Amino acid sequence: MTPTPLLNVDSLTVRYGARIGCQDVCFDLYPGEVLGVVGESGSGKSTLLNAVSGQLAPDSGKVLYKTRLNEPSNIYAMTGPDGRILMRTDWAFVHQNPRDGLRMSVSAGANIGERLMGVGWRHYGEIRTAGLNWLEKVEIDEDRVDDLPSTFSGGMLQRLQIARNLVSKPRLVFMDEPTGGLDVSVQARLLDLLRGLVADLGLSVMIVTHDLAVARLLSHRLMVMQGGRVVESGLTDQVLDDPQHPYSQLLVSSILQV
Amino acid sequence: MLRAENVAKSFTLHVQDSTVIPVFKHINMTLKASDCVALTGASGAGKSTFMRMIYANYICQEGSIHVRHGSDWVDMVSAAPHTILDVRRRTMGYVSQFLRVIPRVPTLDIVAEPLKTMGISECNAGWCAAEMLARLNIPKALWSLSPLTFSGGEQQRVNIARGFVAEYPIMLLDEPTASLDADNRAVVLDLIREANARGAAILGIFHDEAVREAVCTSEFDITRFRAANDG
Amino acid sequence: MSRFDDAAYNFAYLDEQTKRMIRRALLKAVAIPGYQVPFASREMPMPYGWGTGGIQVTAAVIGPDDVLKVIDQGSDDTTNAVSIRKFFAKTTNVKTTEDTEKASLIQIRHRVPETPLKEGQILVYQVPIPEPLRFLEPRETETRKMHALEEYGLMHVKLYEDISRHGDIATTYAYPVMVGERYVMDPSPTPKFDNPKMNQMPALQLFGAGREKRIYAIPPYTEVKSLDFEDYPFTIQKWEEACALCGETESFLDEVILDDHGGRMFVCSDTHFCKTRREQGHTGVQSPDFDRTSQEAIEQ
User: Fold this and answer.
1) CA distance B137 to B156
2) What would the pLDDT profile of C177-193 be if each residue is shown by its tens digit?
3) Domain extent listing, chain B
């Protein structure tokens, strides 16, 4: 028995004028699966992520998403409110720079509570309790709940962003270099946290990274992109241990050994 | 349980002028329930490579490797990634030569993980993992630590615990007894025998002839299928 | 009298085309209660912030038979109120009044009169920032989308933030309301004390923001609900004091500093309301004819 994919991406192409952002990208994402997208800067991985997550309209192709209630529907054909409700509840987007995904002018608790209030929570005590629970899950001291994010360290900000996104129990999470810009020890902690959350909550994840070690730790499957195209895809360990495409081999052989 | 047909493998090194290194041609092999087959051949003959091909860690250029997965047969060469992941989750266990883990994760969680991904409750999984670690003589004080700080032998035993904690129908063992002392080797041999007894099909690489004689039902020499370098 | 020939100005200062344009925006605003309608706000002979939005709305709806009242902070005789009243007296020749009940058109800043309003009356609010979501989401494109899709979670983020910082909803003026169960609206910088008056009001309420070029409206008898949390319900301000002049305990009070030694008194912010009560014989602690003996008798 084959389960239905949660997400089905079909010949997605994004052009920036004459330049190619990404071209003819096809893939499926199954429930509970973590898909890594690797490639160097400019390979089109962020473009692909933005297009698949509906933040960028593609020039051609479609993305089918199986919502909780309905049959798979094309996200670009969804009318305004449906798409936005999807983005706020079923989906989450973790930005590389947490400042892009957080409201820096309101407290940590309000940041976490926003999605809940967005879907109609109107009980302050319950919203605050949910906020405290999530702070604990992402290993931030509970007494920081009323502090502004601007008083947080980079690693804490990223964990707060993750809490803010996951509080609505999304099924699909997009991550753009979630560990970029963090120092190594913080990175390891965050990866560990992400792995745990992904496994416990059964999330499907599409994660863009240029760090192959991050990709190996987090993702089940890997797509290697170069020049806007997917040049190789397969099981993470297969792509990293037995890369077929010249570019994948180059990437893998370029990893620094510690 | 497992049927390899006409399998061929070569490596193409694009970074080095697209050198093609052929490895195998025409491997045919079957593995039945309760078999314990020893994969043999000189060092560098490609025993580990073949094992990784079965686990779909390496790609096969030709042929098929069918694996009994529940009531179906799955071709590990051509199956979709999520199917392969499901085979790895429920059917085929693999004990590699080296433990590869995420920093900071406690040993107990690492061993319990295969059970949890099979859908066994956290509590039961932890209990089984603890039992397995105790059996392999890992001191209880170490369970809450990451195995990255352990000695080579301890790491190998954690790796074995992780492989045997879930009762996979097919098990691939890459030198499971290599760096173990006599006592622990005996434990591992018991584990292999128990797995065989419950019907698991085992393919193993064992350097030690005594070990092979102790547990294996037959041997499979990979050297015969070496492809010549001239193709 | 004036050095200018008043006849040189059109009735109510604005030309007829402009008034028509504003009326069209007003009709749309009344049809969609709480929705901010863009309009081509004109330059007025006074700076932004002095009520140019309210004045344009008043100019568009005022007729020769109207009776106009203008208040600023509840008072009929502050600079802003006096200037605007004189402006319309000069450009329209309509009757002006301080009496809330006699006025057909009332332009207000920062207060809604204490005297309940009736059917047929029109209340014009001066609005500095019409967008209630502005402080949390500065992008106009985004806030318009949020209104269109009824995404008002953000408004509660602000109230949440109030409670977590101050232990209570500390917003005391421009307190956001939900109009007709559809649009979240900024009630202009009136105190939240006045929010309940806006609910099911028999009079028509019009809002004009000159600098921001927006008009919105609440038709008579429309539900206006102040946003809150289930466990932190909306409440209005309460004073322990009564008005020092008329003894009223239920009105919005202003604190007046009397000297440099901490002397102070509280008086009704609505001057006409206070005056009317005094004329009816009500007294407060500062009234010349206040009956101190009875007060002291009560205290003893």
Assistant:
1) 12
2) 999 999 999 999 999 99
3) 1-91+170-180+202-231
Choose among B15, B80, B105: nearest Cβ to A250: B15
Non-local (6+) Cβ contacts of A2 within 8 A are: B80, B83
CA distance B102 to chain A (A): 7
pTM confidence score: 0.84
User: Cβ distance C12 to C19 under 8 Å?
Assistant: yes
- Taking alpha carbons only, the member of C178, C167, C133 closest to residue A128 is C167
User: How large is the ipTM?
Assistant: 0.85
pLDDT in tens, B154-176: 898 999 999 999 889 999 999 88
B7-40 per-position pLDDT tens digit? 888 888 887 888 888 888 888 989 988 889 999 8
Report which of A120, A110, A103, A93 is spatially closest to residue C152, judged by C-alpha positions.
Answer: A120
A192 to chain B, any CB pair closer than 8 A? The answer is: yes
Measured distance CA(A94)–CA(A175) in Å, rounded: 5
List of chains touching B (3+ CB pairs within 8 A):
A
Buried b (16+ CB within 10 A) or exposed e, A35-55: bbbbbeeebbbbbbbbbbbbe
pLDDT digits (tens, 9 = 90+) for C114-125: 999 999 999 999
Query: Distance between CA C205 and CA B230 in Å, rounded?
Result: 92
C174-190 burial: b if 16+ Cβ within 10 Å, else e: bbbbbbbeebbbbbbbb
CATH 1.10.1740.10 fits B1-91+170-180+202-231, yes or no: no
Report d(CA B27, CA B37) in Å as an integer.
Answer: 15
Query: Which chain C residues touch A80 with a CB distance below 8 Å?
Result: 145, 148-149
As a whole number of angstroms, the distance between CA C253 and CA C251 comes to 6
The DSSP output letter for C212 is T
Strands of the sheet with C224-226, listed across from one edge: C183-185, C177-179, C224-226
CB contact under 8 A, A110 and C160: yes
pLDDT in tens, C194-214: 999 999 999 999 999 999 999
Cα(B180)–Cα(B156) distance, rounded to whole angstroms? 8
**Could you count the other beta carbons within 10 Å of the beta carbon of residue C63?**
11
Q: Look at residue B9 in the predicted model and tell me its pLDDT.
A: 87
Tell if the CB–CB gap between A109 and C164 is shorter than 8 Å: yes
- Taking the CA of residue A95 and the nearest CA in chain C, the distance in Å comes to 18
